[in-house]
Write a structure and sequence with these properties.
6 helices, globular, two-stranded antiparallel sheet, electron transfer activity, 11 strands, 262 residues, ETF_a/b_N, binds adenosine monophosphate, nine-stranded mixed β-sheet, electron transport, Rossmann-like_a/b/a_fold
C-alpha cells in the first residue's frame, strides 16, 4: 500500500449548534428543532480538519465526507467541502438513525469506496452516544483507535495517541483503520470566502437507504426527553468566616467551633 495516495472518509453529523440552549417540546416527545441553529458536530469538524491536514501533508489524496440525514445536512457537507474535503455524499434519512444503523450505512459506503482511513468524531454532542466508530470498526473487522489526540500515518500503518483516564496511550495499527477524534487533536480552521465559493462546485452525491440496500432497525425507542432540573443560582461570599456562618445557618451543616471535638 502506498502511503502517499490514501483515501479518507470522514463521517459528519448535523447537530444543534453547541451555543444554542436546547428546548424540549411541550409534550416531552423530543427536542424542539424548529428555528434552531444547526451546525457540524464539533468532533466531526476536528475529523475533517485532520483529514485536510493529512491531505496537505501529501499523505491522503482523496477525502470523501458522508452525512446521513435529511436534505439540509447538505449544508454541513458543503462546509466540510469548503474546509478542504474533495467530495460529499448525503445518505437520505428522515429519521434519527441509531449508532448501529449509521455504522451499517458507513460499512456499505466503505465496501464501495475502500478507504484507508475512516475518521469520525468520538461522539455526537446531541445524543452523546460515543458508539458509532466502535461499531463501524467491529462491522469492518478492522483496527480502531478512539479519542485520538495525535495521528501519524507511516508506511501502511497508523500511530495514534489516545486520551485515556490515566494519561496518553499510543497504539500502532495497520491500515485500514477507524479513528475517532478527541478535542485536543487539532483546532479546526475557518473556511475562507473563496473556498466557500469553490465548495459549491465540488461533487455532492445523494443516495437513498434503498440504494445501499439498508433497512433501519428499530432497536432504540425514544421514550421521553426532559430538561435538566432547575438549579438555584449560587451566591458570592467574601471570606471563609462568612462561608462557615452561611453553611451553619442556611445549609444547616454541623461545623464544630475552634477547639471543639468534631
Ligand atoms: P455517536 O456514536 O452518535 O456519538 O457519533 C460518533 C460519530 O459518528 C460522530 O461524530 C460522526 O462522526 C458519526 N456519526 C454519527 N451519526 C452520524 C450521521 N447521522 N451521519 C454521519 N456521521 C454520523
Amino acid at each position: 500500500m502506498n502511503t502517499n495516495h490514501l483515501k479518507a472518509i470522514v463521517a459528519i453529523k448535523r447537530v444543534i449548534d453547541y451555543n444554542v440552549k436546547v428546548r424540549v417540546k411541550a409534550d416531552l416527545s423530543d427536542v424542539d428543532l424548529s428555528n434552531t441553529k444547526m451546525s457540524m458536530n464539533p468532533f466531526c469538524e476536528i475529523a475533517v480538519e485532520e483529514a485536510v491536514r493529512l491531505k496537505e501533508a501529501g499523505i491522503v489524496d482523496d477525502i470523501l465526507v458522508v452525512s446521513i440525514g435529511p436534505k439540509n445536512c447538505q449544508e454541513q457537507i458543503r462546509s466540510a467541502l469548503a474546509l478542504g474535503a474533495d467530495r460529499g455524499l448525503q445518505v437520505e434519512c428522515d429519521v434519527s438513525a441509531s449508532p448501529l444503523d449509521v455504522a451499517r450505512i458507513l460499512q456499505k459506503i466503505q465496501q464501495e469506496e475502500g478507504a484507508d482511513i475512516f475518521l469520525l468524531g468520538k461522539q455526537s454532542i446531541d445524543t452523546d452516544n460515543n458508539q458509532t466508530g466502535q461499531m463501524l470498526a467491529a462491522l469492518l473487522d478492522c483496527p480502531q483507535a478512539t479519542c485520538a489526540s495525535r495521528i501519524q500515518i507511516e508506511q501502511n500503518k497508523a500511530i495514534v495517541t489516545r486520551e485515556v483516564d490515566g494519561g496518553l496511550l499510543t497504539v500502532e495499527m495497520p491500515l485500514p483503520v477507524v479513528i475517532t477524534t478527541d478535542l485536543r487533536l487539532n483546532e479546526p480552521r475557518f473556511a475562507a470566502l473563496p473556498k466557500i465559493m469553490q465548495a459549491k462546485r465540488k461533487p455532492l452525491a445523494v443516495k437513498t437507504l434503498a440504494d445501499l440496500d439498508i433497512k433501519l432497525t428499530t432497536d432504540i425507542e425514544l421514550i421521553s426527553v426532559s430538561s435538566p432540573a432547575h438549579r438555584q443560582a449560587g451566591i458570592m461570599l467574601n471570606s471563609v468566616d462568612e462561608l462557615i456562618s452561611t453553611l451553619r445557618s442556611d445549609a444547616q451543616v454541623q461545623i464544630p467551633k475552634h477547639g471543639e471535638e468534631a
